[in-house]
Amino acid sequence: MSENSSKKAIFEREFSIVATLVVGAGALLLSFPLFFEEAVGEIDWITIPMVAFPILASIILLALASQQPRGMKENMAFPVKAASLGFSLFILAISSALFFGWLGSIDWTTLKINEYNMNHEYTWINSLGISWHVGLDGLSFPMLWLTTLIIPITMITTWEENSGWYHHPLLLLMEGALIGVFVALDLFMFYVFWELTLIPMFFLILKWGGKDRRYAAQKFFLYTFTASVIMLLGIVTLYFLQDPSQYLIDRGVLTGRTFSMIDMTNNAQMAANDGSVWLGESMQNALFLMLMLGFLVKLPAVPFHTWLPDAHVQAPTSGSMVLAGVMLKMGAYGMFRLPLTLFPHALAEYQYLLLAIGMISLVYGSIVCLGQTNLKRMVAYSSVSHMGIVILGIASMQPLGFAGAIFMMFAHGIISPMLFSVCGSFKHHYHTLEIGSTRGLAKASPFLGGYMMFSWMASLGLPLLAGFVAEITVLVAVWMTFGWWVLLPALVLVITAGYYLWSMQRTIFEGSGDVVLPEGMAAEDARDLSPWENIGNLLMALLIVLFGVLPWIIWDMMSAYANAHFYFNMGGLLNLVAGGA
Amino acid sequence: MIDPSWVAGLGVFLFCIGLWGAFTRKNAIIVLMSIELILNAVNLNFIAGAAQHGDATGWVYTAFAIAIAAAEVAIGLAIFLAMYSQHETISLDEVKLLKH
Amino acid sequence: MEASELAILIPVLPILAMPVILFLGQLFNGNAKWKGFWKEGGTIATAVMAIVFLLSLWLIVGHVSAFSEGNGDDVVTDVGNWVSYQLFTEHGDMKVQELGFGMQLDHVSVMLLFVASFLCLLICIFSLGYMNTDEVNENRNHRFYGEFVLFCAGMFGMVLADNFLWLFIFWEIMGLCSYLLIGFYYERPSASYAAKKAFLTTRVGDIFLFVGLLIMHAEFGSWDFAVVFNAANIGAADAGLIKAMLLLMFIGAVGKSAQFPLHVWLPDAMEGPTPVSALIHAATMVNAGLYLVARMFPFFAAPAMAGELGDVALLIAMIGGITAFMAAAIAFVQKDIKKVLAYSTMSQLAYIFTGLGAALWFVNNGHDELAFFAFGASMFHLFNHAMAKGMLFMASGSVIHEMHHAHHHLEQSEDGHDEDDDHHFDAQDMDNMGGLASRMPITAIAMAAGSASIIGIPLIGGFWSKEGIVGSAWKAVMYDGGGLFIIPAILVLLTAGMTGFYMSRMWFMTFAGKPKTEVAANVEETTPFIPIPLVTLTFMTLGGILFAGLNFAGWLGENSTHLSLSHAPSHLWHEITHAFLALGSDGQMDPFILIITWTTILLSMVIGPFYAMSLYGGKLAKGQKAHWSIAWIITLSGRIHSTYKFDNSIWAESGLSTALRNRLYFDQWYDSLMLKIVVPFSYAAAWFDRRIIDGVIKGIETGSQEASRNIRSLTTGSARDYIMMAALGTLALFLLIWGVA
């Protein structure tokens, strides 16, 4: 009795600490403008509030919770989870404020190429030309917004995960690292955050994963890490190939070269305007391939995709949601940011290679989906298939295709977390992921069935849900560039419908009269979604509908980015496009 | 003033002694001392170079090296103490902790 | 306020109603008041449908009267921009494209809007009676009503859209709702299977439509009707690609309207809640394909395409003819009352395709007058068929519902306990019915009127339009290059007779003769709400003559700009002479068409029903009296049945009959294509992925582990060995540098 009350006292003390922390952090963030003399719109809302803050906060929360004696850690779960969720909501508020212009009007649709909103630069490692440089444009902002939307939703959906005191701060850490990737305008910084994202994900899979989590976590880490090392090699080569005699803003004192993406883009642009090929044709091709390899593995594209199903099947719900929702988008984002911007000539050179990779990912991925017996594995392969559409959009070399590909990233970013959250709940409540081991679950778990139906439909590209806009725009571009090749992606639309409907028929439907449960499960154990899972799924469903019905909310800036990109690359590219069509 | 090449020569001599000691002795303390000898030999080389070129960089590096060597000795001795308390010996032939 | 400003509410209101109904349904599930007054959401759905119907009427009346006054124009309302983007043109500059949503109202869409909103309202009222009195549906009717209103929204949106993109979007929404509604009883494996089948089959058609739309976008840079239908734009486009585009779009229509060879889903769609989902699949949604083909008219009419697209038109007519004949033949042997109606739907839709094919062929070959006539007749048939088939399905639903109740009642009184043994008794099997005419007068009369309209009994609804379609098909044969139209023309002519047989067969098996089971003898027509739509639609169907008099067909064919009440008598006279004496507008009689006309009438009105009467007719049981309006038919059928005995056992036991019962094996073929080829192939692909692609990765993994195990033997653990190695390594490095230098 006394032990309980002392526990309670300690708990209350800890709770008050965390509550103070949340309120303090919120007050700090809200009073952020007071620290600056500039107008609200000119303050750097990214570096401290969106990158440093979540990373530091997660470390503090982890430290705070892990200092507790063994029995007390679970007591810390609620305050730590609440703090993590609160922090991520603050960040969501800031990113939304940036979009809606509550922090001074920001125009997202008139940016030219290599122009960024919230562009802030700080000296970091001066001698090598490395700086802390952040900025947002029509490509990175949707990704940033996606991250800030998905992380709190993931936290809500997986609220009841074990060891929440450890789990939720990891998600917060993930958020900081992901935002770092999307806002970085310096290659060094980009790479640092790129690898930083692996760490929380590794631990998420390792600690909360399924039976083979060790294997999956290692495979995930090593596979993507190997690819990013090749990418790093490309980055370093790119660094040393720069001509120090060229005009550079962030010149390294010692090396005379720079990691600044803005400088590199400038130089590439100038070369393109002169009609010459920046860094020379063969070097551009080699660098393009090196960088693309890193990004294609992350995306992932066939044949570099096999880490994804393993990672997803073993990963916990939260890991899968963030992995599919945001981490895969890093690959596509990197493609747009680096190889496509810097090496337009190589893009034209390898257009048909990309077409082949995209088509194979799309068609092969969907056929493999049809042959899966594990629900999560099937959804993982559907991600591979959908990412093929992104590659197709790039290969089309049309502004519409680019915009469609970016929209696909965003749409898939809100649809796939819902797919995985449904799979996760399925596993959580029915202890299996085998398709066909259950029947008629729509009766026992109507909400689970409903959300499964909704997310499946969203993923197969039903109109007025987010995925459709992306599919139709990319396919229009594919037709304009490649003509009848578009029949293959169109065929995939049928296969996609096939595997989704078939899997639903064999899990939540049928079972006339009685629900068929997995072996060894008692009928009274068949439960529906918990309130937390319900809220999370509902939020994602609302987002999917919102961006499906009103795509222009986010489409306009993507389209503007794609257009600016093409104005920039007009000179050399146009002839190639006209020739290819 | 002594010709810097003499200093460098002394450095080479000390280096060889140190290397020989590190290869042949069993006692960990003596191996540590040999390594210190090697470090000092390198320091002498730095000094010789600095004197030769009239450049202060060599002096600075030497200062760094001495500081780091001191820290290293402290850590090394601490490791040997821990080793002794675990294995009751500091003979390098009997301790194979580094395997695998 | 203009009606067109509120037109956006027509699709939007039901869309908004859907989540409301679902949410409230989930919240108040099981609540007594929710079940009582709110009818588990039915009240909300009905209210929304009523508002939408009134709005539509307002819109339609405005449109019609504007045209009558001579200052009418197609109403186009631009609602807003959806997405905009830029495209490269061939000259290397960028042009801005916009995909907006707007609404367009012309004669065809006005007609379809009326059909859709009117029937949706009636179905909704019908469901209040049908769905809410069935225990199977208890506590989940809100799901039905939610999906139902979304479905209606899809239909309204598709009809109103002013561009092909939004037409496609709403088209797909209807596909989704069709999936949801067919799978309403998801716990039944057959329903789950049928839902999947319907979605996938129509999806196959949809992707062709989708690719067609991509071509359209590439050729016209837009999906707007205003741009796409512009004759100058059509002239500027590539004729070959236009042809490909039309073919692809037609495949989409084939899927949606359940035509050969994508027809397999429609009969199975009867797994949905009887008969409401069935009605959707008969009266409204399947018209989407027809609407799409009707929308292709401007392409065929464009001067640039003159004579180019004859093959496409012929193909449309051909598919129509084949489906009409095939479906009618399959309908011969069906025992399930809803299945008969499903095949009848396929067959009648095929008629409309044939008529549209003829219209498109005429206009493409410069026979504008004939084209407008055929087009008007087809659209009029769409209208007549929707009204009649809607009623027939609701009537069949009424029969099934009451049969079910009677069965339930009997079971309870006999055994003293409520036992659910639907497996032993099929309430939809016509072999269990018979003699219902006296027990269910309203239903029997409604069904008689609907069947008459479908058969094409002179002066009733479908007669006016069917004659026009058959006549147009035969006329096409007579012109240069239309020789191949002989095939669909003969097929639709034969089908007319077959329709007479199978519709009569259905009616007589259900309503005439003596009850074949005890259940049928105890049926009572008591369910509330059900008679309202039946009576309304009976008048609508019998009023076909009124629409014919108003020159509705001519108005739909756009060769008359107004519906005129004052000229109705004289116009009706013209129609009658045209229909029965084949008098053209110039007063000349066309003897060939006259023969065709009377052959059709003879086949459909005399031979078909006569044969059906002789096989299935019969007097009612003693003491049972039918309503006077149908009593004479039953008496006649009884007399024929006892006088003329045909021995049809040769047919009934032949291989052809078995094949028809198995729906000509199409389903088996498609299923085995899926199960024997596609699925094994996908399993093989999954194996390939796991063993080969991932196998290579695993090989690298195990290979490097092996290598590291070998290298590990170098680590002895002795510190001095390490020092030695470091020294040797350094020495080697020095030597290397020295050598290079």
Short description:
The complex is a heterotrimer of chains A (581), B (100) and C (741). Chain A has 581 residues and is mostly helical. Chain A has helices spanning 2-30, 47-66, 73-100, 140-157, 164-183, 187-196, 198-208, 213-241, 261-273, 281-298, 307-314, 317-342, 344-349, 351-370, 375-395, 399-430, 441-444, 446-459, 466-482, 487-505, 531-549, 552-568, 570-580; strands at 117-125, 130-136.
The number of distinct helices of chain C, counting runs of at least 4 residues, comes to 32
Main beta sheet of chain B, described?
none
Largest interface: A-C, 65 and 57 residues
Shape of chain B: elongated
The number of distinct helices of chain B, counting runs of at least 4 residues, comes to 3
Distance between the termini of chain C: 93 Å
Low-confidence stretches of chain C: 416-423
Compute the CA-based radius of gyration of chain B. 16 Å
Helix and strand composition category of chain C:
mainly alpha
Mean pLDDT of chain C: 84
Percent helix of chain B, as a range, is over 70%
Strand content of chain C: under 5%
What does the model show?
The complex is a heterotrimer of chains A (581), B (100) and C (741). With 581 residues, chain A is an all-alpha fold. Chain A has one domain. Chain A is built from 23 helices and 2 strands. A two-stranded antiparallel ribbon of chain A has the order 1-2. In chain A, a hairpin with a 4-residue loop joins β1 (117-125) and β2 (130-136). The longest helix of chain A is centred in the C-terminal third of the chain and has 32 residues, at 399-430. Mean pLDDT of chain A is 87; it is low at 574-581. Chain B is an all-alpha fold and 100 residues long. In chain B, 78% of the residues lie in helices and 0% in strands. Chain B is built from 3 helices and no strands. In chain B, α1 packs antiparallel against α2 (28-53) and α2 runs antiparallel to α3 (57-87). The longest helix of chain B has 31 residues, at 57-87. The model of chain B has no long low-confidence stretch (mean pLDDT 87). By secondary structure, chain C is mainly alpha-helical. Chain C has helices at 3-6, 9-27, 32-36, 42-68, 107-130, 141-160, 164-182, 189-220, 225-228, 231-236, 239-256, 265-268, 276-284, 287-295, 297-301, 310-331, 337-364, 368-415, 441-455, 462-478, 486-511, 518-521, 531-542, 544-549, 552-556, 568-581, 591-616, 628-643, 649-652, 655-661, 666-712, 719-740; strands spanning 75-88, 94-105. Chain C has a two-stranded antiparallel sheet. In chain C, a hairpin with a 5-residue loop joins β1 and β2 (94-105). In chain C, α19 packs antiparallel against α21. Classes of the chains: A mainly alpha (581), B mainly alpha (100), C mainly alpha (741). Chains in contact: A-C, B-C. At the A-C interface, α14, α16, α19, α20 and α22 of A face β1, α7, α8 and α31 of C.
